[in-house]
Amino acid sequence: MAANAPCCGTMFALYVLIIIGLVIFAGLMAGLTLGLMSLGLVDLEVLIKSGRPQDRFHASKIFLVVKNQHLLLCTFLIGNALAMESLPIFLDKLVTPWTE
To answer: How many CB atoms lie within 10 A of CB 51?
Structure first.
């Protein structure tokens, strides 16, 4: 397919915003995957039981999210794959296929 949206039109701006949103969402999913999956459950349990009050509070909130690690990882991977697979669909509307 060729570029469908003429430059500087309303649809062009919408596609650019969608593309930027998809890239940000994919980066967020990748960053959260690295950040949350690197936390150890044992380390969080130690912080919950013997950390400072502020650390106990934050560790207890994070532990609720991280305790189902397989579900969390699948959610992040599916979100990242969804963003990365839909990006060429919107990018195809703006540029010719040989520039992708």
So the answer is: 15
The answer to whether the beta carbons of residues 38 and 63 sit under 8 Å apart is: no
Geometric angle at alpha carbon 93, from 87 and 96, rounded to 5°:
100
Sign of CA dihedral 11, 80, 32, 74: positive
pTM score: 0.80
Distance between terminal CA atoms of the chain? Answer: 12
Cα angle 34, 36, 41; round to 5: 130
Question: What tokens does 1 get?
Answer: 């397919």
Distance of alpha carbon 7 from alpha carbon 61, whole angstroms: 46
Max distance between CA atoms of the chain, in angstroms, equals 61
pLDDT in tens, 24-69: 999 999 999 999 888 888 988 999 998 899 989 999 999 998 998 9
